[in-house]
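INSTRUCTION: Work out how this chain folds

Fields: amino acid sequence; protein backbone structure tokens

Chain under study, with its fold:
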Amino acid sequence: MAAATAVVNQMLRVTDAAKKDPGARDWEPEIRRFSGDPAALLAVTAVRDYAAIGLRQEGDTAVDLEVATVDLAAPEGPTVRITGCYDSQSTRVVKVETGEVVPPGTAPRYVWDITVTRYEAEPGSPWLVNQLDPLTDRPC
């Protein structure tokens, strides 16, 4: 399910770019190219929160992905469940005005449960990340 894991990586790149410069533009259309709700709403809200409180991210996150299950006949559309190890060790969050580093609120590496669904009713039948469950109490 290369298409499903590829869309997760694309979403991660877009959200990293958005968090690096959250006030540069409205990131929602680009985030929604790779994600559906509720995952899209969470990502957009996080970027808007960064802009509103004057934060930005330095560095890039990474995720090591493993397909857990595939259900091509799921009622909501073909669905792939992925387990990933989210890694933010190469990033830091800083205050835009002062450059002061903001201490992380979670461990730098934790398990992510991800659901990617193919939206067959949409033009091009895109695969979209629609569920991101950070399991911050489960290090990886």
